[in-house]
Amino acid sequence: xxxxxxxxxxxxxxxxxxxxxxxxxxxxxxxxxxxxxxxxxxxxxxxxxxxxxxx
Length: 55
Description:
The chain has helices at 11-16, 21-24, 26-30; strands at residues 3-7, 34-38. With 55 residues, the chain is α+β, with helices and mostly antiparallel strands. It has one domain (3-42). The protein is flat and about 40 Å long.
């Protein structure tokens, strides 16, 4: 079983540079049985850098 664990992705700097952190790992992600995201998805969510849910 192939599992990839990504921690502290911090999408906000990637977004500012118009890049995707998952695009970098796309070849590895395609053949996975599981992808686990842990930690912070945004460095500054209070500034609206990544909106996952509405309050």
